[in-house]
């Protein structure tokens, strides 16, 4: 099951890249590129810092994979919201002005305007969530890079792993909500 999940996640960036490009989402493309580079750099850092025979590498890598998968899923949700927005004309405000106030037609047009605004707000929130994941991942990367500089490394490992697992848990919670 885990191998299947990894395969699905491994295929997501290519699919997302073409879909984000087709949708004209420069921000999504930039975040996707940064996510993939950050994850690759994080993997290399972990492989340099930890033994491949130990459990620490696997624990950190597993949590980082969950963070990556969650961010990819959020970018997919951006695409879903963008598709929903495409079906709602952007010029409904002008159409609403031509309608009789308090009419059924005006109410329905206003409802679609509200739906469009809601979807646009969701897109912005999802982009911000991806940015937060990138920020936390880079923060943990910097801290792990500093491991071996004389502080209590056992406590550091546990703290960094807990932070990464908390971030992964937040990602998983989002998927359960949707």
Question: Proportion of β residues?
Answer: under 5%
Contiguous helical run count = 6
Overall spatial form = elongated
Determine the structural class based on helices, strands and strand pairing: mainly alpha
Order of helices and strands: HHHHHH
Quaternary arrangement of the chains shown?
single chain
The separation of the N and C termini measures 21 Å
> Low-confidence spans: pLDDT under 50, at least 5 residues?
174-178
How confident is the prediction overall: mean pLDDT? 85
Number of strands: 0
> What is the total number of structural domains?
1
Query: Percent helix among the residues?
Result: over 70%
Query: Biggest β-sheet: count, sense, barrel?
Result: none
Cα gyration radius (Å): 21 Å
